[in-house]
Write a structure and sequence with these properties.
The chain is 32% helix and 22% strand. It has 13 helices and 19 strands. Helix 1 runs parallel beside helix 6 and helix 10 (407-421) runs antiparallel to helix 11 (428-445). The longest helix is centred in the first third of the chain and has 19 residues, at 28-46. The N and C termini lie far apart (70 Å).
């Protein structure tokens, strides 16, 4: 989940800050840079796979760093930040929209907008932007929120919470998050403005939204501590009588294995990297002189790469055997673990989450019904795949449907009915099948005049029958024409049935 840090570099961020414990003079932007460095330190220690980009904005915006996992690049760019004119948050949001769309398209992301409580002045102010949000006509003038991709918007206010400007700005910031409609939060300082309060604020943000997901992966007697990246989000399913929330459990259980050719490419709601996690805590022990010394746990943690890991065994097995591991992530929610290669030399262990439910993959059937093929098949049948599983109900796309987009489609169906009519009584069942099919389509489309037209055509066919025609043919054509002109013809639940006769040839009675 990539993150964009949007730093306000307007003149208001250059206001000096009086710090009681530090004699040097600092500006608000210096405290903001310190907070960003605190956030980057947290990512380096706990969430090092996160892609981060830095955008500076005032009345215009500039991307100072593209998306990177090398956080030193971000730190270097922060040292080169210059001060510009007034604050324009709408400009920043437009810039963020373009930056993310160009590189990540529809990938879920997060934005951390850092400002000082200044709404700006004039036309580009946040107050003016929100007041005119519903008055804009052209696409170019449209307000950038909500973003065309999933995005959480967090706003960090570098200002004294008791400052009137900050208190006045908070409702506008909250409305900005509400307009985004993707979640997010406003973070204000706890207490007076200082390096410590800014540091605590960024730590609070990082611990809440960038806390790594840690759990255990089990398969029979095997167990391994893992980390999922990015952190799985809540899945909310809206129903007629409310909503159901699904949360990935910290215990992932592998239920069995399937061939890749059987599972195919099923629909998924999220994908996560599966990484092994060290179970040993890293602690620093200090001697009496205050110097850091290595503890025994540090020595053990350096040997993690030499310790056998179930994830390594699983990864290699899935890649060699071309299989996936069906995994239960919580009650009534499943996924699959598989080997995914982003290059010829590098591959990763991935967890793809299906849509919650037992029947999220139609061609495998219910997950509760999956079992070992050896339990019910002989050795000769083991090579045959049990998939796809045929559904009990007949799918609409498995049936031939009537398409009358062009006149030729309607003409073709009418000619088919007439061809069977001319071969009565031998084709009596085919005749009534096509007649009912065309009649139901006409009723579905509201094409009621077609019924009378078909009745006229059948009557005409009856008069054109040769003298050698079977008597039952004329009776069936007359019967069908009379039904099409009756009131029952408009009841879609009824069908035209053959007329029972006493003739030996074509007898349906």
């Amino acid at each position: 989940m990539p993150t964009v840090i949007a730093l306000d570099v307007s003149l208001s961020m250059s206001r000096p800050v009086v710090l009681s414990d530090i004699p040097e003079e600092y500006q608000r932007r210096h405290l903001a840079v310190h907070g960003i460095n605190t956030y980057l330190d947290y990512l380096s220690a706990n969430y090092k796979l996160e892609f981060v980009s830095l955008v500076a904005f005032s009345y215009l915006y500039e991307q100072l760093s593209t998306f990177t996992r090398d956080y030193n690049v971000i730190r270097t760019a922060l040292n080169k930040v210059e001060v510009f004119s007034k604050t324009c948050i709408e400009t920043a949001l437009n810039g963020i929209k373009h930056v993310i769309s160009d590189e990540w398209s529809h990938t879920p992301c997060q934005v951390i907008l850092i400002t000082d409580g200044s709404l700006g002045i004039g036309v580009g102010s946040l107050k003016k932007s929100l007041e005119t949000i519903n008055m804009r006509q052209s696409v170019e003038e449209k307000f950038p929120l909500p973003f065309p991709f999933p995005c959480k918007l967090h706003i960090v206010c570098i200002g004294n919470p008791n400052d009137p400007d900050v208190r006045n700005a908070l409702p506008y910031y909250q409305r900005l998050i509400d307009v985004g409609d993707q979640g997010g939060e406003i973070f204000t300082l706890d207490g007076a403005i200082s390096f410590k309060s800014v540091e605590d604020t960024f730590n609070r943000l990082a611990e809440k939204y960038y806390n790594p997901f840690c759990g255990n992966l089990t398969c029979g007697n095997f167990s391994c501590a893992i980390q999922l990246f990015p952190k799985p989000e809540l899945f909310i399913r809206h129903l007629d009588d409310g909503k159901v929330t699904y949360t990935v459990s910290d215990k992932l259980e592998i239920l069995g294995f399937l061939d890749i050719k059987d599972i195919g490419s099923p629909p998924t709601v999220a994908r996560h990297l599966v990484l092994p996690r060290s179970t040993k805590e890293k602690t620093d022990a200090k001697d009496k002189d205050g110097k850091n010394v290595k503890s025994e746990d540090d020595d053990d943690s350096q040997d993690d790469g030499k310790t056998p890991s179930f994830t390594v065994l699983l990864h290699g097995s899935l890649r060699v055997e071309s299989m996936v591991a069906i995994t239960k992530v919580c009650d009534d929610w499943y996924g699959m673990i598989y080997s995914w290669a982003d290059s010829k030399k590098k591959s990763n262990l991935m967890l793809a989450l299906f849509d919650p439910g037992q029947d999220s993959i139609p061609w495998t059937g219910s997950f509760d019904n999956l079992t070992s093929c050896k339990e019910y098949s002989s050795e000769d049948e083991e090579k045959k795949s049990s998939f796809p599983v045929k559904p009990l109900d007949k799918r609409s796309y498995a049936q031939s449907c009537v398409v009358w987009i062009k006149p030729s489609g309607l003409q073709s169906d009418i000619q088919k009915v007439l061809r069977h009519a001319r071969k009565l009584p031998e084709k009596i069942h085919q005749f009534y099948k096509e007649l009912n099919r065309t009649r139901r389509a006409a009723l579905s489309f509201g094409f009621h005049i077609l019924l009378d037209a078909m009745a006229s055509m059948l009557e005409r066919e009856c008069t054109l029958l040769p003298g050698t025609a079977h008597p039952n043919a004329a009776l069936q054509l007359t019967h069908a024409a009379n039904f099409l002109r009756s009131d029952n013809a408009f009841d879609v639940m009824q069908s035209v049935t053959p007329l029972p006769t006493n003739f030996s040839s074509g007898n349906t009675g």
